[in-house]
Amino acid sequence: MGIGAKPTARTWVRSNMHTMTFALHSIPPIPAPTPKSARPTPWFELPHAPAPGSPVGALQAFADGQATMVELAAAQPDSPAFKLLVLRNGDAVHAFANRCAHFGVPLAARQAQLIHQPLKSLTCNVHYARYAWATGACEAGECDGDALSPVPLVQDADGLLRIGTKPDSV
Length: 170
Prior knowledge:
Blueprint: E1 10-15, E2 18-23, E3 55-58, E4 67-72, E5 82-89, E6 92-97, E7 115-117, E8 121-123, E9 130-132, E10 138-140, E11 150-151, E12 153-155, E13 160-163
Antiparallel strand pairs: 1-2, 3-13, 4-5, 5-6, 6-11, 7-8, 8-9, 9-10, 12-13
């Protein structure tokens, strides 16, 4: 094919004493981006999710107004632990999977790396996506339309926090 020639349905190329045929295919159009869902991935669908009823710790073990990283042993001996963030505000306590909704990486690998403003927000230390303390909804960064995966906690008669149950609608 000469300079400025337009490709045809088949173009013959002679190289190294071999003749090859290339079929030109039309490239399909790129689909429009799918709008993000405000619904986070359910905690029980995440890898190594704990079973409902798994112990998390005593309420008193979590400092008031702080976010605390917890690793829950996996059901399978060779599986990694499930990483959880427990947030306490007085007697109210809630938890999120330690997983950035924007990129799927942990918000922090260690407690010392956890970026948070007590009672206000949690921030991913990889891309700095910021999430609301109480709801886990994206507040700033590339997480627009996303939210952290909440993990339900219940307190038993002995004051021990445990993983709550899955929703019935699942």
